[in-house]
C-alpha cells in the first residue's frame, strides 16, 4: 500500500480522513520491484514495514497537532517555557479553576504618558492563558489626545477593532498599496487583514478615545514599522539607502526611538 497525505482532502479512495489530513489507498503495481541483494548483517525493511512506519508517523503528527481540539480547552502552562507552533502545553485539567477563564486586565486604562500618547493592554496567551489553542485574543486600546498607534502589522492574526467611545481614524494598506481609510465613531467596527500595515489615530480632538480589539490568534504578534527601522543597530548608511532618507533624518529618528549605528 502506498500512503499519500493530502492537506486538501480532495482525492478519491479515501480510507481515513480528518479535517486536517487524509489517507488514501492505491493499488500495488503489477510488476514486482527488482530484487536487491541484501548485504550480510543489514536488514532492508519490506514495503509493508515502510508503509506501516509512514502510517505511524502520520498518526503521531495528527495526535500531536490536534491535542487541543481533542479536549474542551487547554489552559496554557506558560511556566513550562515550552512554546510550539500550536501553542503552549496544557495545565492538567484537575488544576484548572474558574478563575483561569476570567481576565480583568482590560478594565483599567493604560498609561498613555509616552512618545505615542497611547497604550495597548493585551489579553494574549501570555497574559490570559485560557485562550491557548482557541484561536482568539483581545486587547484594550487607549488613545490620549493626539495619540497614535503607528503603522504596524500583526503577522499571525486578523484584527477587529470596536470603538467604545471617542473617534478613531483607522486605515490599512493592501499588498497592492491601496489605502483603506475610515474615521470611526462610538459603536463602529473595522477589520484589519492579517499581515497588512495599519494604524489608529485619535480623532476626538482634546478628548481621549477607547477601543477594544480582538484577534484571530492567541498570539497575534506585533511589529511597529518605525521601531523596526529606527530602534535597532542597523547602520544609518544602509537605512539612508533603503528608505531614501538623508543622514540627518535617520539619526534624528534613531535618537528619538533609541536606535544606534
Automatic annotation (TrEMBL):
Binding site for oxalate: 154, 159
Disulfide bonds: 74-90
SUPFAM superfamilies, sorted: RmlC-like cupins (SSF51182)
UniProt main location, coarse: secreted
Molecular function, one GO term: manganese ion binding
InterPro entries (alphabetical): Cupin_1 (IPR006045), Germin (IPR001929), Germin_Mn-BS (IPR019780), RmlC-like_jellyroll (IPR014710), RmlC_Cupin_sf (IPR011051)
Cellular component aspect of the GO annotation: apoplast; extracellular matrix
Binding locations of Mn(2+): 152, 154, 159, 198
Localization terms from the record: Secreted, Extracellular space, Apoplast
Keyword Repeat attributed: no
Stated name of the protein: Germin-like protein
Biological classification of the source: Eukaryota, Viridiplantae, Streptophyta, Embryophyta, Tracheophyta
